[in-house]
Amino acid sequence: MLGQAHHPTAQQAEVIGAAPGPMLVVAGAGAGKTETMAARVVWLVANGYARPEEILGLTFTRKAAQQLSRRIRDRLGTLAGIPALTDIDPTGRLSASLESITPTVSTYDAFAGSLVAEFGLLYPVEPSARTIGMTELFQIARRVVAGHTRAMTGNPNPATVTDNLLSLVGELDNHLITATELKQETDAFTALIDELPKGPRQRGDGMTKKLLRVKNTQLLRVDYLSLIEELAEEMRRRAVTTFGEKMSQAARLATAHPRIGQAMRRRYRVVMLDEYQDTSHAQRVLLTGLFGGCDPGLTVTAVGDPMQSIYGWRGATAANLERFTTDFPLLDDTGSPVGPAPKKQLTVSWRNPGTILRAANMVADTVLGDSTSPRRAVQPLTPRDGAPAGTLTVGWYPTEKDEHAAIAEALKNIRDDAAARGELDLWTAAVLIRANKQAAGLSAALDRAGVANDIVGVGGLLHVPEIADLVAVLTMLVRPGNNTAALRILAGPMVDLGLADIVAVGRRATNLAARARRDGAPETPTDPSGDGDSDITGWETNRAERRFAAQLAGIIPAAATCGAGLVDAIADLGEPERYSEQGYTRLVRLGQLLRRLRTMTAGRPVVDAVAVVDKEIGLRQEVLARADPAAEGVAGTRHLDRFISYAAQFSDTPGADLASFIDYLSLAEDKEQALNQPEVPSAPGRVQILTVHKAKGLEWHTVVVPGASNSNYPDQSWESKRTTTWLTDITAVPSTLRGDAGQDGEDPATASAPVLDVTAVEDLSQLQKAIDEHPRAYREADMEEATRLFYVALTRSESTLFVTGSPSPGRTHSGPADALVAMKKHFPDCVSSWWDGEADPAADDSSVPAGDAADDIAEALSTRPETTVAGVFPIDHLGDRRAGITTGLQAVGAALDRLPELSDHPVHTRWEEDVTFLIDEHRRRQSSLIEVVLPDDLSASDLVALKKDPDSFARRLARPVPFKPNRFAKRGTALHRWLEKRFGGQTMLDFDELPGSGEPDATAEKLEQLKAAFLASEWADRQPVRVEQPFAVTIGGTLVRGRMDAVFHFCDQPDTGWMVVDWKTGKVPVGADMEAAQVQLAVYRYAWAKLVSQSTGTQVPADKVRAAFFYIGANKTIEPSTLPGVEELARLIGGPAATPTTD
């Protein structure tokens, strides 16, 4: 009746028609929770329990909020149009309320922000403070740390301090802990350590090294309190805030001022809480303070899945799900609690086929218990009626290389089958990895198989060989004490230095350090940030490199802590006799290159500096030389282009420089999930490589879950896994202060944070024993979270699932995860390959005598491309031509030797470098020909720019620079934000997050004029079916992405009546400018035709979709009579030979 694709199941009907009041709905993966929530809202509205404007829906992501908002509005709109409405509503009151369907649906963060904006002066806080993202917060924190005058215990480097500071601030915000509470708890615990007597048979004073380490960790954490206050003060001075701080403020407001809750309960009578298992303690306090246990007429519905609670590292706690029934109890008419809220389940999966569900349920049983257990939170999932069996493939391989090759071959076969059926633009696939370091090898394997793929997120890109080399050179420019970066360049293909020369460079660094000490220099890293890195074993990416680095660690002294590093030695090599002739020449060239790069990048924006280094070291040329960039599936410079786009985004952050960018990349590699990341759009026809955490809430036709070993997904066999707790981690707060710690009278299984019980401790021996036992409880929780993560990965598949693994490199006892072994046992017909051997401990033996190091390292460095491990860059693209080219190179060198010698005076050398650079720059500017390789991932705006001015587009592509924010762009963004809210969409870009948005807005009057003009236009009273609709389509072999402002449907037939409208705030273009702008509409038209064809199952030709611009200031709708077809768009991208992948 409401336009659903399927009739509700019995479970859904029970939830939809439940009596008003609190209710917990435990919904399994793909169980239709969004549709159920929307239908429940309709039932409550239709039965007079609430008006549309009294509906509040909260979820986590903007995409989810947009989907829920759209679903609620669509269903209420359908209710408004049914003929039976007069029978349901003879008084006409419901019909009147449905004339303006304005439910409020937003993210939890946005709701907290609106609460602070409205009531913040009660706290008091500055309600108008601008909310900043993690990138800008990182910059501010970094500057605070640099200006901190008090010494920190242990003298950690500033990059580490910044990371720790931000993590600790997040913990305090999530758990509503004040600095005073943290210090009091720390003082009490350290006093206990100091006052306890030693135990029986303990020597000395009983203070063991472990106890001393625990005590020092507590004291160091307190050291950070002054930094936390300085950061807070700096943020107040800048009038900025964070989402975490706003949530903390909102929670405290709701607790301290009951009248805020009264106002919210008058405003909202129905509250829908999505993904409740991912809420933090601060969010729980906020929601219970506003809506919990005090209004019998209020309907609060929480929906969540305990098996999808995977964000514990960011403050989420699955304990909130079970505590909901007591936080929001059933009330009688007087408002007195009469029992816990009822709990219902949704266990029919609309996404997963039967075989995949059986595998997922088997994994869930290990956490939730057997289906007969009364303690089980949710019953096993069952497939929908008529669901296919699906395809499950399981494999265990001897090496990671074998595993990746099998994955690439399988995905190539599936993709080729989809292409043969003409369904490539409908096929979606993802490889869901446990850690970013897995991305590069998988991407390389897919490239070799000719399978187009994308690495999603900057953290994964950092492990791509060419990106790792680029970052290493950038690091050497601003972090001369970082030996890890220097060693990668020295030992890698860029310099290809031999072992003896590397050792000589290390000894030169030691000599320089000793000379510095004699001259009275402090024994600190030369790196001004203090971010020296003497641990050269950290640079490796594969087994051969690990062995190599471990051997080098025993040969090269740790120079960084002595005041000089490898980069310093490269700048001051000393006597040439230290090195081989060829090695010395290469080192001199490297030193000259680094000096030139420092000059060329000094003072430049980050993106310019990155582009300069990319060009000067010839990285792009090396990448293009590996394989024909036009060949199917070849990555080409895609990874470099995407990395430079991240650099451009970072450049827009106030105060950004190259040093802070390097620190930010380090944070992104380790804690990317904590950074602001865009939504992950689908990419039909391509394989997306991303972490499981990023994949939550998404789905693909084909899913691969690689690396299913007990080191990636720890189980009971992985006893050696190290577990960190607040006892040894300064970024974690004592569990007694956490909001998810066990509470009196509560089932211990409900708590997420085990508490260290010291009530019966009488001496240091007993305290030591309690401390030793404490991590075990955390280890169990870590294993359960890893299992839940594995479950989330499995349940992303709509049709085909591959689960594979291999021994983790460097892990002697690495074996298949328990879940993978169980799949082999229960699904023997699904096993494609299973290696029964054991990992060879000697394969990763790093304890090789130094005398054997030269032979081993030479072998690792000289291995031919066909036998190297995946990921070594660059490969030897010359192949069999190398011998001839080497002969020719020698002949040219001999001829050059016969030329008259020039002076080798350093001044002359620098003159020559400067003149060469100026001549090259002049030639580039004079040349009218700009040759660039188009990336295989473009936006609709890129196509407009390409059509309008190919030369300017090429220049921008060759040398990306950030666009300067301007008031006209801000005005357009602000108007779009207003339009999205007006039409019920969820804004995908927060205006307050734009660079420069904190500046005075000189265009406010014009903005109001534009709003008035829109309200007076023909579009004001029309309701779009989609707002800010993202898309990704393949045109001419290139993935084109974008976002449509609004889509309207002017009839009831799915194959006709569609119109895409793009709002414009500028002037109406004419001539060639208008012709170029029409390319945007052509892309939108084609994309919507594909989207609606896929969603409705009815083929909608692109020429049946109308598309128009509406210029608001001019009150003019421009709908071109003809638009370029997909063939013309393909020619624009790739020339006459290019053809679209569909049609």
Topology of this protein?
Blueprint: H1 10-16, E1 23-27, H2 33-46, E2 55-59, H3 62-81, H4 85-88, H5 93-98, E3 104-107, H6 108-119, E4 130-131, H7 134-146, H8 158-175, H9 179-195, H10 209-238, E5 240-241, H11 243-256, H12 258-267, E6 270-273, H13 281-291, E7 299-304, H14 319-327, E8 330-331, E9 337-339, E10 343-346, E11 348-349, H15 354-368, E12 382-383, E13 391-396, H16 400-420, E14 429-433, H17 439-448, E15 453-455, H18 458-461, H19 465-478, H20 483-491, H21 499-518, H22 543-555, H23 566-571, H24 581-601, H25 606-616, H26 619-626, H27 638-651, H28 658-671, E16 687-691, H29 692-695, E17 700-705, H30 764-794, E18 797-805, H31 818-826, E19 831-834, H32 850-862, H33 882-897, H34 906-926, E20 937-939, H35 940-948, H36 950-958, H37 967-982, H38 1004-1015, E21 1026-1035, E22 1038-1049, E23 1058-1064, H39 1071-1096, E24 1106-1111, E25 1116-1118, H40 1126-1134
Parallel strand pairs: 1-7, 1-10, 2-3, 2-6, 4-5, 6-7, 11-12, 13-18, 13-19, 14-16, 14-17, 15-16, 17-18, 20-22, 23-24
Antiparallel strand pairs: 8-9, 21-22, 22-23, 24-25
Helix pairs in contact: 1-2, 2-3, 6-11, 7-8, 7-10, 8-11, 9-10, 11-12, 11-13, 15-30, 16-17, 19-20, 19-24, 22-32, 24-25, 25-27, 35-36, 35-39, 37-38
Catalytic activity: Couples ATP hydrolysis with the unwinding of duplex DNA by translocating in the 3'-5' direction; ATP + H2O = ADP + phosphate + H(+)
Pfam families: PDDEXK_1, UvrD-helicase, UvrD_C
Keywords: ATP-binding, DNA damage, DNA repair, DNA-binding, Exonuclease, Helicase, Hydrolase, Isomerase, Nuclease, Nucleotide-binding
